[in-house]
Amino acid sequence: MDAENHSYSAIVTDWFTRFERALSEPDDTNMADLFLSDGYWRDLLALTWKIQTLNGGVEIVNGLGAVSKAAGVSEFQVDLQTNPPRLVTRVDTETIEAFFTFETKTGRSRGIVRLCPDASDGGKHKAWTLLTTLEELKGFEEKTGRNRPTGQSHSRDFRGPNWLDQRREACAYKDRDPTVLVIGGGQAGLAIAARLTQLGVDVLIVDKNPRIGDNWRNRYHALTLHNQVQVNHMPYMPFPPSWPTYIPKDKLANWFEAYVEALELNYWTATEMTGASYDEDRHRWTVTLRTPEGSQRQLHPRHVVMATGVSGIPNRPEIPTLDDFSGQILHSSQYQDGENWAGKRAIIIGTGNSGHDIAQDLRSSGAEVTMVQRSPTLVVNIEPSAQLPYVLYSEGPTLEDCDLITTSIPVPLAKQAHVTFTRKSRELDKSLLDGLEKIGFRLDFGEDETGWQFKYLTRGGGYYFNVGCSDMLVEGKVRLIQYDQLETFTATGARLKNDQTLAADLIVLATGYQRQEYVVAKLFGEAVAQRVGPIWGFGDQLELRNMYCQTGQPGLWFIAGSLAQCRIYSKFLGLQIKAHEEGLLPIEEI
Predict the structure, then answer these.
(1) Cβ pair 336, 496 in contact under 8 A
(2) Residue 98: count of CB within 10 angstroms of its CB
(3) How does pLDDT run across 302-320, given as a tens digit for each residue?
(4) How far apart are CA 461 and CA 536, in angstroms?
(5) Contact 311, 579 (CB under 8 A)
(6) Could you report the per-residue pLDDT of 389-406, keeping only the tens digit for each?
(7) Is the pTM of this model over 0.90?
(8) What is the pLDDT of residues 323-373, one digit of tens each?
(9) Tens digit of pLDDT for each residue in 448-500?
(10) pLDDT class for 539, splitting at 50, 70, 90?
(11) Topology agreement, domain 168-312+514-581 and domain 322-509
């Protein structure tokens, strides 16, 4: 260790010495002296059994004081070897960053602290951000690595059922109910099922599609992921190093099938949930499913995890006179391929990712395309601009360390970082953005110019990663009109307010999806929907609402998001459910 790194390690070690002393002594002054007045503490289950962020010295001191003794915090160890303390720049701030581990009565945990000099206190180093995350439950470790099951290697019953027989029996649920029922078999459902399976929790995934991976496979022909492969790995099974930078949708769909097989996940295809009710006394659900044969099956899990994603039920807004159109009307979720529309005319209503990609696919197939913009849209080139938030994942840290660093940035600081990313991307994309404005395209850069990531986290859309359609718009290959230029739809297309006609054979509604509250009300009833409240977005909080955590309805959980979000937060959702099952975390009657 060189002298500079030794100095950083000494600063961090001294901070932890004082931190441990403050945790053990009921003196708020000592604890307050460890944090900047505008510091942050983010805890993911380690001390509070919650996913929460506290901001400000007083809030942090009160929060730590309320839980540290009950949690039994001990054994703080700064990582001086693999990730020694170092000087880094995070959110435009130079800070000493250190990884550490610690233990509580129930678990083993990991975290990151960032120390900055406090100019108002003689330059004394204090915590700017502190992250504490639960890694595993003592006595209930994942069945991986050294804990992997032995299988039949030591006991071979040649007359008994083999592995395949056992798998078929496990998946059938003929004489038992799953402990956890996961609704939706995309990346969210697979991630949480994989985590729970490794924790020894009996879990069943059901999905209405006829084949595993169809949630990606059935999307439009040209689709590939918009972020790079190194960001998108699934838990336990990283993608092969030979995979392309941007994963094609069918390749990902096929991987999902392999993932289910390799990790021995119980999965029912062509099965749709039609309703559910909760028994408050037995703490169990009665869930009604429609099977592939069209019959009904009832299951009684203790937990239901909704993994239907941010993009669930298609949103079909009431558009005046649209019913007068006699051609074909499709929601973007129904669109498959542009080949059948060669030489035809299409109107795309909506200018998000799906609208642009479908317009480009149709135009490339020989169709005449007009896009209708309903609201301002954020546009960012796929490279390098859209990849700026993911640079960390290409810089060398392990995936696990990258995830921990990403998780350690609280929402207000993440917003500041994305303001910087947005400013940089606008500089990189200036010529394209200028061209779009010249043709009347209305641009948006997110609330407080926080960019596309926070558009996704607050509303699930409203942006486009340019892979060529913006250029087509600027070049006039795809026509653009504003929604307020439309007068009425007609049997053959649309009439504009300037009396021009817009002929069409196809209208595609790239109008997004219903909020998850709508799905909850439909499947569980209005009372449960009211009990849960808003899902996704932040409201006045510093965490996503009702995601990856206990909700107002006992036994009902939600997971959604990108592959990276599902990989990261499935761990914490799985640990909470396991803790419930082992009596470490009682069901809260909220």
Answers:
(1) no
(2) 24
(3) 999 999 987 667 889 999 9
(4) 12
(5) no
(6) 999 998 789 999 999 999
(7) yes
(8) 999 999 999 989 988 888 999 999 999 999 999 999 999 999 999 999 999
(9) 999 999 999 988 889 999 999 999 999 999 999 999 999 999 999 999 999 99
(10) confident
(11) yes
Q: How far apart are CA 550 and CA 252, in angstroms?
A: 30
What is the rounded CA–CA span in Å between residue 277 and residue 212? 27
CATH topology of domain 3-137: Nuclear Transport Factor 2; Chain: A, (3.10.450)
Does residue 172 carry a pLDDT above 90?
yes
Report helix angle 249-262 to 187-198, nearest 10: 20
Q: What pLDDT does residue 26 have?
A: 65
Q: Which CATH number fits domain 322-509: 3.50.50.60, 1.10.530.10, 3.90.650.10, 3.30.565.10?
A: 3.50.50.60
Those residues whose C-beta lies under 8 Å from the C-beta of residue 491, and which sit 6 or more positions away, are: 324, 325, 326
Measured CA to CA in angstroms, residue 520 lies from 26, 196, 531, 552 at distances of 44, 23, 10, 13
Separation of alpha carbons 68 and 78, rounded Å = 19
C-alpha 493/C-alpha 489 separation (Å) is: 6
DSSP letter string, 29-85: HHHHTTEEEEEEEEEESTTTSSEEEEESHHHHHHHHHHHHHHHT-EEEEE--SSS--
Which uninterrupted H or E stretch holds 17?
helix 3-24
The mean pLDDT value of the chain amounts to 93
Is 60 exceeded by the pLDDT of residue 383?
A: yes
Retrieve residue 453's tokens: 């990531």
Residues 54-77: b if buried by 16+ CB within 10 A, e if exposed:
bbebeebbebbeebbeebebeebe
Neighbouring residues of 290: CB distance < 8 A, sequence distance ≥ 6: 271, 272, 273, 274, 296
Both structure tokens of 53:
């962020």
Q: Is the pLDDT of residue 201 over 90?
A: yes
Which residues are CB-contacts of 305 (< 8 A; sequence separation ≥ 6)?
A: 180, 181, 182, 183, 189, 192, 557, 558, 559, 573, 577
Whole-number CA gyration radius for the chain: 26
pLDDT digits (tens, 9 = 90+) for 31-81: 899 999 999 999 999 999 999 999 998 899 999 988 888 888 999 999 999
| CA pair distance 33, 136, nearest whole angstrom | 30
Rounded-to-integer distance, Cα 255 and Cα 261, Å = 10
Residue type, 560: A
From edge to edge, which strands make up the β-sheet containing 486-490? 486-490, 493-496, 501-503
Alpha helices (H) along 382-515: 399-407, 411-428, 430-438, 451-459, 469-475
Q: What is the chain's length? A: 590
Other C-beta atoms closer than 10 Å to the C-beta of 82 total 8
Tokens of 182: 């996961």
Give the residues across from 559 on adjacent strands. none
CATH T-level assignment (fold) for domain 168-312+514-581: FAD/NAD(P)-binding domain (3.50.50)
Q: Where are the domains of the chain?
A: 3-137, 168-312+514-581, 322-509
**pLDDT band at residue 590, thresholds of 50, 70 and 90?**
very low
| Tokens encoding 307 | 């993994």
